């Protein structure tokens, strides 16, 4: 590479000298120093430039130029992983204003939600109306102690009553046989009162919601008024 470059350089100098002699007819010879001067003027020396400096550095492209050269996919909005996307607002089913959720607010603390969920839908609606009609002080003194019961649980209560009262006949006065209780059908609720005024109000106003206390010896046991006529 170096030899080829030097050869081309001296060839140019030689051609320049020959051309000068042809252009100067009155001159037959030139001194060596004069020829060198002419050569330098015709062919300026090549100054070596470091490789790093010889590389052209392009100017930064503008934002508009960058957007124009990118592909549509590159310009598209980034795909957000589903895990990073905002999840839809969670629905709190316990906060929904259903009859069951409203009645669950009156359930004695520690009692299973099944006491409410197992009640007949029409009966739940009647109870919601009944509680809504109560004055604030009466409502604050009235709770739901028991509602729906499974037949298996009713048998436990029945066996306990037979043991306590000594016979089936005596037990039947206080506890229904398994499968025959309105609790097993989701048509009965036992209330709990914190104030005697709540008992009086409940018995005076139950009929307005088509409810009744069918057993005088159980002033807490409330049912749909029509359930005993089945």
For the biggest β-sheet, the strand order reads: 1-2-4-3
Name of the top-level CATH class of the domain at 98-148 and 186-229: Alpha Beta
Query: Helix coverage percent of residues?
Result: 40-55%
Rounded to the nearest angstrom, the distance between the terminal CA atoms is 116 Å
Beta-strand content bin: 5-15%
The total beta strand count reads 4
Class per helix and strand makeup: alpha+beta
Name the average pLDDT: 75
What's the architecture of the domain at 98-148 and 186-229 in CATH terms? 2-Layer Sandwich
Uncertain residue ranges: 25-42, 46-92
Order of helices and strands, N to C? Answer: HHHHHHHHHEHHEHEE
Tell me the radius of gyration.
53 Å
Descriptors:
single chain, 230 residues, Muramoyl-pentapeptide Carboxypeptidase, domain 2, four-stranded antiparallel beta sheet, 7% strand
Question: What does the model show?
Answer:
- The chain has 230 residues and is of the alpha+beta class.
- The protein has twelve helices and four strands, in the order αααααααααβααβαββ.
- The chain has helices at 2-23, 32-42, 51-54, 63-69, 72-75, 99-104, 114-117, 121-132, 136-140, 151-165, 168-172, 196-205; strands at 142-146, 189-193, 211-212, 221-224.
- The protein has a four-stranded antiparallel beta sheet with strand order 1-2-4-3.
- The longest helix has 22 residues, at 2-23.
- 14% of the residues are buried.
Per-chain topology:
Layout: H1 2-23, H2 32-42, H3 51-54, H4 63-69, H5 72-75, H6 99-104, H7 114-117, H8 121-132, H9 136-140, E1 142-146, H10 151-165, H11 168-172, E2 189-193, H12 196-205, E3 211-212, E4 221-224
């Amino acid at each position: 590479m170096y030899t080829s470059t030097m050869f081309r350089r001296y060839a140019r100098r030689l051609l320049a000298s020959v051309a000068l002699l042809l252009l100067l007819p009155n001159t037959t010879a030139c001194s060596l120093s004069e020829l060198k001067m002419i050569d330098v003027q015709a062919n300026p020396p090549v100054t070596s430039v470091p490789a790093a400096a010889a590389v052209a550095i392009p100017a930064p492209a503008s934002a508009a130029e960058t957007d124009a050269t990118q592909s549509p996919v590159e310009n598209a909005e980034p795909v957000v992983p589903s895990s990073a996307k905002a999840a839809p607002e969670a629905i709190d089913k316990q906060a929904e204003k259903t009859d069951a959720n409203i009645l669950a607010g009156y359930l004695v603390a520690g009692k299973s939600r099944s006491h409410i969920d197992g009640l007949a839908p029409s009966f739940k609606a009647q109870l919601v109306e009944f509680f809504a009609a109560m004055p604030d002080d009466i409502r604050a003194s009235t709770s739901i102690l028991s509602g729906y019961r499974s037949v298996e649980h009713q048998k436990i209560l029945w066996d306990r009553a037979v043991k306590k009262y000594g016979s089936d006949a005596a037990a039947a006065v206080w506890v229904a046989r398994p499968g025959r209780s309105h609790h097993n059908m989701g048509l009965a609720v036992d209330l709990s009162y914190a104030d005697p005024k709540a008992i009086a109000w409940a018995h005076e106003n139950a009929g307005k919601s088509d409810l009744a206390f069918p057993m005088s010896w159980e002033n807490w046991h409330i049912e749909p008024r029509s359930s005993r006529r089945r």
